[in-house]
Fold:
Amino acid sequence: MAKVLLLRGITIVNDKVREAIWQRVANEPYAKKLGLKLLRLDPGYALVEMDLRGDMANIFDMTHGGAIFSLIDEAFEISCNTHGTVAVALNVTVTYHKSPTKGGVLRAESREIYRSRKIATYEIRVTDGENSPIASCQALAYRKREKLPFL
Structure:
């Protein structure tokens, strides 16, 4: 059975792939450590949320860029693997626009822009609870031939 179906030119994430990714994210140790929550999953798309905590602060008492990058990377990782085959990061370029408000919520939305058999490109936007831009990212994934090992 195909992991991704094509219906009238629209790619649909197969229920088996969708459920497997949801389960893996829910049980991922690093995501749990940071409190990353998957909110939405579609083909080439993911929306991930993170509550900002005091232990995510840097030396300036602002949210650490590494915490924001982790949110970006989680959304990217999920969105580029929705097609049922293993995809890994080749390049990630992040621009930080402003520091988020302490104790707020951040959301990263990753959208597939282009996908071929071997590579795919993504745009990831991070916004705060007021939908203000916090960071943006362009990312490139290498698409392997192997199916996701947890299917």
About this structure: The first helix runs from residue 15 to 27. Residues 1-11 have pLDDT under 50 and may be disordered. The CA atoms of residues 26 and 32 lie 7 Å apart.
